[in-house]
């Protein structure tokens, strides 16, 4: 088992509970962590034996393009897509951050973290 992480991804997107947020947009950050078996990739040095980082990034980028009211919803969609696209992934953890959220005071970012493990197959 091993972990693949894409940390510090940044996007400009149109998420937010308030209509104004969905019109003007904001900067968001995403950190993605997946657990999967990395033994075959480690011994073979072949890209098709692992999870392609570029494909993972594209999955996140595509989900960031679709506006959502809640960060929780964005994170949930990312996890769904990763689990669907990569059936051998055992677990996913995603952190979605909104920079400078409109809270009426100083807050560098608001963040949600979601985790999911694949159900064991019988």
Automatic annotation (TrEMBL):
Lyase keyword on record: yes
A single GO molecular function term of this UniProt record: dihydroneopterin aldolase activity
EC number in record: 4.1.2.25
Domain of life of the source: Bacteria
Broad class of enzyme this protein falls into: lyase
Annotated function: Catalyzes the conversion of 7,8-dihydroneopterin to 6-hydroxymethyl-7,8-dihydropterin.
Family membership noted in the UniProt record: Belongs to the DHNA family.
Cellular-component GO terms for this entry: cytoplasm
GO BP annotations, alphabetical order: folic acid biosynthetic process; tetrahydrofolate biosynthetic process
The entry's keywords: Folate biosynthesis, Lyase
InterPro entries: Dihydroneopterin_aldolase (IPR006156), FolB_dom (IPR006157), GTP-CH-I_C/QueF (IPR043133)
Name the record gives this protein: 7,8-dihydroneopterin aldolase
Domain Dihydroneopterin aldolase/epimerase: 4-116
Reactions the enzyme catalyzes: 7,8-dihydroneopterin = 6-hydroxymethyl-7,8-dihydropterin + glycolaldehyde
UniProt gene name: folB
